[in-house]
Amino acid sequence: MSIVDTPERRQLRELTRAFVTREVLPHLDDWERAGEVPRALHATAAKLGLLGVGFPESVGGSGGDLLDSIIVTEEVIRSGGSSGLIAALFTHGIALPHMVAAAGVSIGGSLGGRLGGTSAPGDDDLVQRYVRPTLAGTMIGALAITEPDGGSDVAGIRTTARRDGDHYVVNGSKTYITSGHRADFVTTAVCTDFPGSGELTLLVIDKGLPGFTVGRRLEKLGWHCSDTAELSFVDVRVPVANRIGAEDTGFLAIMQNFAAERLSLATQAYATAQRCVELAVRWCRDRETFGRPLASRQVVRHRLAEMHTRAEAARAYVHEVAVRVAAGEPVVTEVAMAKNVAVAACDEVVDQALQLHGGFGYMRDAEVERHYRDARILGIGGGATEIMNEIIVKGMGL
């Protein structure tokens, strides 16, 4: 038994597996083709206590920490879900933590504490208006950082927010926003100085405000059941009460939450690899060629052994780093390494799994085909592999 394998966490796995089996698997193919998951799924997950895992009970969550969130993510995928489903159903994992931290509530896996040292106007009120309803499954939130010409350059954000009395006037655009179409509100990074100055503030912007337009639904290679949108802001008046923390603390808030986000993506990567190993083993046992099961051939057996080894090694390292993050250790470099290790393992294993499935693996009816498509984003989201390498090199003192 380890810290991530306790009796309580085994029960959490069982609950998650039952939820996926009953509520997800019969419908996932339809959601993939529809381009989104139904809002009712959020409410169902909330009633079971899964939606609020990792968030304190004091803000409407189910309790637990980063390790519990990782277990839910892992088990959703291992049970036949997908990383696209994780992105759609658990978007609040990147939309809410900044509000919770600004209200002075600690979340395992982030630095926590009030941004700017003291509570800013509306901090506790934001918890009541947005955090609690979202964790109850009655609202959906999104996080808007990326801009059309910005990519990973968070400090270069050009969407501006000019103070005008009790409001900010917001102008700019965002792109590749996960759950952007379904979201009731968007936690938005804006520049409160001149564009690109790096003086960032986070505002909660409600859908439906005049001047706030949700653009076309973006079609993607993978994550088909997770809706993605472009957002436009033209003279959108946002109440100062919707500011998260003190002004110009947005960059720090974003950086503080990256550890949890990157570990979530790393978890999705190794869990996808593990699931694909399971699918490949099952296929190779059942599939016969020239009168013999594929699994009887040494070249296939050795390939499966290598795939299993890579997936398990990635899982072990991500868990080790996650335990340190949950304990409050400043392991920025190790988080970057964990993400890259898991993504590299996923890329290799998913590719080999599809190859072993042959022509069937290329068909939409094959689960491995969905994982093959979904896996490609994991080395881009939350900081690309190249950005992770820069963090690693700096940690080496270079």
From TrEMBL:
Q: Name one GO cellular component term.
A: cytoplasm
Q: Which GO terms describe its molecular function?
A: flavin adenine dinucleotide binding; medium-chain fatty acyl-CoA dehydrogenase activity
Q: What is the uppermost EC class here? A: oxidoreductase
User: May I ask which residue range the UniProt record assigns to the signal sequence?
Assistant: none
* Chain ranges of the Acyl-CoA dehydrogenase/oxidase N-terminal domain: 6-102
Where the record annotates domain Acyl-CoA oxidase/dehydrogenase middle, the positions are 142-236
Pfam families noted in UniProt: Acyl-CoA_dh_1 (PF00441), Acyl-CoA_dh_M (PF02770), Acyl-CoA_dh_N (PF02771)
What are the protein's UniProt keywords?
FAD, Flavoprotein, Oxidoreductase
- Coiled-coil regions in this chain? none
Annotated ranges, domain Acyl-CoA dehydrogenase/oxidase C-terminal: 249-396
Q: Which cofactor does it need?
A: FAD
Q: Which GO biological process entries does UniProt record here?
A: fatty acid beta-oxidation using acyl-CoA dehydrogenase
**Family annotation (PROSITE patterns):** ACYL_COA_DH_1 (PS00072), ACYL_COA_DH_2 (PS00073)
The enzyme's E.C. designation: 1.3.8.7
The entry's family comment says:
Belongs to the acyl-CoA dehydrogenase family.
What is the protein's given name?
Acyl-CoA dehydrogenase
UniProt organism field: Micromonospora jinlongensis
- Identify the taxonomic lineage of the organism of origin: Bacteria, Bacillati, Actinomycetota, Actinomycetes, Micromonosporales
